Amino acid sequence: MQTLRRPVAPRDCDILGHMNVAAYVDAVSDAMFTIQGLAGLDRAAIAATQRSFVAARIECDYRAEMLAGDVLTMDSRVLHIGTKSARFAHVMKRLSDGATVFTAENVSVHFDLTDRRALPIPDDLRQALERLREAS
Length: 136
Prior knowledge:
By secondary structure, the protein is of the alpha+beta class. It has helices spanning 21-38, 43-49, 123-135; strands spanning 2-7, 51-62, 71-81, 85-94, 100-112, 117-118. Strands 1, 2, 3, 4, 5 and 6 form a six-stranded antiparallel β-sheet that branches.
């Protein structure tokens, strides 16, 4: 499922002229908020429950450069749903030629933002994530 589409801004680029490592990770973070929203854990739900997924681990491969003005798309999917965490995959492409420029897998932990600790994924969120996993 497409979780992100945006142009690469000049501020996203480093001294070498291509998109900076931090901008790729930022794109994964934004894609994760899209997934959360699709699963019912949007901004309002996060504010009401003080619960969210937080990044625990990311593994990524940089395959091609992105330059200012390139438009990126990110497709993401749910790979696995555990007791307190879930694993996700992301594929970034350059819109102009469809080239895969970046891939990543991340583990995110369901987290209590007040108590600062991991929590079991509740049944309703688990079911929503499972529906997303099956749909991809």
